[in-house]
Amino acid sequence: MKTHTKLMTFTIAILMSTCSYAADKIISTDVVVVGGGSTGLSAALTAAQGGASVVVLEKNPYLGGSSAFAEGLFAVESEYQRAASHGLTKDEAFKHIIEFNHNKIDNSLIRNYVNKSADNIAWLNEQGIDFRLIQISPEEPRVWHIIEDREHFIHGGALITALQQKAKKAGVKFLLRTPAKKLIYSDNKVTGVEAEDHKGNKIVIKAEAVVIATGGFGNSKKKIAEWTEYNPETFLPALPLNKTGDGIQMAKDIGAKTEGEGLMVYLAARGAGIIPMQGINAMSWQPTNLWVNNSGERFTNEAVAFSFGKAANSVGRQHGNMAWAIFDDASVDYATHKGIDQGIGVIVPTTTKLTGLRTEIDNALAVNSDGVKTASSIEALAKEIGVPVDTLKKNFNDYNSYSENGYDAQFVKDHKWLRPLNHGNLYAIKIMPNHFTSIGGLNINTKMQVLNQDNQPITGLYAGGVEVGGLYGDTYTLWASGHAYGFAIHSGRTAGTSILKEIK
Amino acid sequence: MKKNKPSFKQLLAVGLVVLTSTLIPISPSYAYDLGKTHKDQSIECTSCHEDNKKAIIPNERCLSCHESYTEISKQTSDMHLNPHMSPHFLDVDCTSCHQGHKVIKNFCQDCHGPVARH
Ligand SMILES: Cc1cc2nc3c(=O)[nH]c(=O)nc-3n(C[C@H](O)[C@H](O)[C@H](O)COP(=O)(O)OP(=O)(O)OC[C@H]3O[C@@H](n4cnc5c(N)ncnc54)[C@H](O)[C@@H]3O)c2cc1C
C-alpha cells in the first residue's frame, strides 16, 4: 500500500512536471542567449556571424541592461593607447590586476582577457563603435575607452544599439519581455531553456548551446542578502533594471558552482531632494572634503574618493553604513567657478563648473532633506547632523590644523587636497554606498563553459559578463577602469567562438 | 546548422500588410488606451490581434500602419523627453508602453520621473 501511494505520487509528479511546462510554442535554434546586454549581444553576434542561428531572450522591454548606461571599457595596448603614446603593457596590467585582488582570482581567465582586450576594441570598431581614451583619476592608468555617442544614442546605448543592428542583420532573433525561467538539463548536458513571454505563453527553446548573460542580481534584495555580505537595505542599486540573478540561479539549480558574489560598490549622496549623478553627488566626491562618521569621528583619508570602490568600502564599514562629507562656502565657490577636482566618470567630468550647485543645495534644504544640512558654526552643524558636538569640534579643529600645516598627521592625505574649512557657512552631505551591479557568480573556464560542483564543464552551457566568478577579490578592480564592460565583450565573444567550434 | 530566416509565409504576410495599408497619420491625443482609439476608428480587432488574442503583437504589425519609430517620434517631439527617440534604446516593444486596452504606461518614468504631456 505504502509503495503504491509512493508510486502514485511519483507518477503524478512526473505528469505535473511535464504538464506544467506544456509549451505554447517550441523554437529550435543553434544557440540561445539569455540576456541582451553587451555580453549577450557579443555572443549572439559572434555566433551569428559564424553561421549559427541565434535567439536572444531578454527580460526587459529593451535591450542593454546596465550595458546601455555604462560608459567605458578597459583595454591595454589598443590603437587608442598607441596614438596617445600610453606605455602601459599587457604584462604590467595583468600583474597589477592580480595584485589588486590579492590573487583571489582566476589568473588564466584574466591573462586571456588582458591579452585580448585590444583586439576586442578593434572588433567593436569593426561593428561601427568608436572610443576616446580617458584616465578616470590620478590613481589609475589611461585604460578607459569611453564609448563615443553615435547618431542620437549616448554612452553604452551607442554600443548596444550598434551591436543590436548588426545582430539583426546577421539574422539574430530577439524576444523581448521573455525571461528565461529554467534550463533544460539532463545527463550533465543543457539542451535549451524554458521561457515565458509577457502574455504568459510558455516557450521552449531547444538549442545546442545556451549562453547565460543576465547581468547579475543587483536588483534583488533577497539575493544580495543571501549571497553576499552586504545589507540590501543600505547598499542600493544605481538603476531599477530588474536584474534578479536569474542566470546564476538557473545554473545553480542544475548544479553549477559559484564564487565571490559581491557588489560593485560606489559612493553616493543619499537623502531627499538629491538628484542622482548631479552637483550634490559630485560635490560629495571631492578629495578636499572632511568626512566624519555618525559618532563625529574622522575615519580615513578622504582622497580615497578618487577610487569609488575603496571610498564606498571605507564609508560602508562605518556604523549604519554612512558618513557625512563636510565642506564650506569656499569649497562651493571653488567647485562653481574653478570646477571640480574629481568628476563622476564622463557624466560630470573633472573640472566641470558646478554652476547649479547652490540652487541644488537650496532646493534640498527647502524640502528639509535628511541628506543635506548647513549651519554657520561647527557646533550648530553637529546638532543638524546629530553627532556629539565635542567630538565633531575636535575632529574639525584637528583637520583644519593639518590643513594649515600642509601635513595630515592622522591619515596622510596629500597636501594638495588639504584646504582649511573656515570660510562662511558649513555644509554636510550624507554619503552612503550604492552599487552599479553585482559581481561574482558562476565559475567558468577560459572557454566560458560553466563548471559543475566537480569543476567539470556542463556540456552546452556558457556564461559571461558580470555574473561570473573568478574575476574579483573583495572589491571591483577600479584600477583597470572599465574592467567589467571590457570583460562583458570579451566573455561574449569568447563564448560565441567556443560554441562555433563545438557545434560545427 | 539551421538557418534562422523568416519563412516565406511570414515574409508574405508582412509584405501584404505593407502593400495593402495606407499609412495613417495618427493624432497624438490617441496615445491613450489604444484598444479604444483603434476601435473608435473602426479598426478590426484582428488588425492587431490576428486570430490569437494571447499572442504577442510584434512591432512590425504596429509599424505597418504607423510607418516607423522616426515618424512617430515627430508627434512627440514637443515633450521634454521624447519617448519615441530614446538616447538609450532601439526598437523597444511598442506594447510595453501602449498596453492595448489599458492606459499607457511609460517605463522611462522609472528613472526619469514624470514624462507626460501637460
Ligand atoms: C550606471 C552604470 C554605469 C556603469 N559604468 C561602467 C563602466 O563605465 N565600465 C564598466 O566596466 N562597467 C560599468 N558598469 C557595470 C556594467 O554593468 C557592466 O560593465 C556591464 O555592462 C555588464 O554587462 P552584462 O552583459 O554582464 O550585463 P547587462 O548589460 O546588465 O545585461 C544583462 C541583461 O540580461 C537581462 N536579463 C536578466 N534576467 C533575464 C532573464 N531571466 N531572461 C532574459 N534576460 C534577462 C537583463 O534585462 C539585461 O538586459 C556600469 C553600470 C551602471 C549601472
Tally of distinct domains of chain B? 1
What portion of residues of chain B belong to β-strands?
under 5%
DSSP helix fraction of chain B: 25-40%
Order of helices and strands of chain B: HHHHHH
Mean pLDDT of chain B: 75
Q: Biggest protein-protein interface?
A: A-B, 40 and 22 residues
Shape of chain B: globular
- Our Rg estimate of chain B from Cα atoms comes to 16 Å
Shape estimate of chain A = elongated
State the low-pLDDT regions of chain A, or none: 1-20
For this structure, what is the CATH homologous superfamily of the largest domain in chain A? FAD/NAD(P)-binding domain
- What is the CATH H-level superfamily of chain B? Flavocytochrome C3, Chain A
Short structural description:
Chain A is an alpha/beta fold and 504 residues long.
Give a structural overview.
The complex is a heterodimer of chains A (504) and B (118). Helices cover 35% and strands 21% of the residues of chain A. Chain A has helices at 2-20, 38-49, 79-83, 90-100, 107-126, 156-169, 221-227, 246-253, 279-284, 308-316, 329-338, 357-366, 378-385, 389-405, 483-503, and strands at residues 25-34, 54-57, 72-74, 131-134, 144-147, 173-175, 180-186, 189-196, 202-212, 236-237, 258-269, 290-292, 323-328, 372-375, 426-442, 449-451, 457-463. In chain A, α2 runs parallel beside α6 (156-169) and α2 runs parallel beside α15. The longest helix of chain A is centred in the last third of the chain and has 21 residues, at 483-503. Chain A starts with a helix and ends with a helix. In chain A, 53% of the residues are buried. The model of chain A is unreliable at 1-20 (pLDDT under 50). By secondary structure, chain B is an all-alpha fold. In chain B, 37% of the residues lie in helices and 0% in strands. Chain B is globular and about 35 Å long. Mean pLDDT of chain B is 75; it is low at 1-30. The chains are: A alpha/beta (504), B mainly alpha (118). Chains A and B meet through β1 and α6 of A and loops of B. The site of flavin-adenine dinucleotide has 38 residues of chain A, from α2, β15 and α15. Flavin-adenine dinucleotide binds next to α2, β15 and α15 of chain A.
